[in-house]
Write a structure and sequence with these properties.
The protein contains 1 helix and 5 strands; from the N terminus they run E-E-H-E-E-E. It starts with a strand and ends in a 7-residue tail after the last strand. Strand 3 and strand 4 form a beta hairpin. Strands 4-3-2-1-5 form a 5-stranded antiparallel beta sheet. The radius of gyration is 11 Å and the shape is globular. The chain is α+β, with helices and mostly antiparallel strands.
């Protein structure tokens, strides 16, 4: 996931699942948080605030 010009990792979930979560947040009309980890598999947990107008890109990498 690219958020605010930085890379984040969301492990164990498909792109479709994360997209559905973000869509749900936006459809609710209220801000919401998505849990991720900084970088490409780093250990630091991050909470990303999803609001209308926030630029987000989801990229799926093959495992292995």
């Amino acid at each position: 996931m690219l958020f605010g010009g930085q890379s984040f990792t969301i492990a164990g979930r498909s792109v479709a699942d994360v997209q559905a979560e973000i869509d749900g947040i936006l459809l609710s009309g209220m801000p919401g948080w998505v849990q991720a980890y900084d970088g490409h598999g780093g250990r630091s947990q991050s909470l990303l605030l999803i609001t209308p107008g926030v630029s987000v890109a989801l990229v799926e990498f093959a495992e292995g």
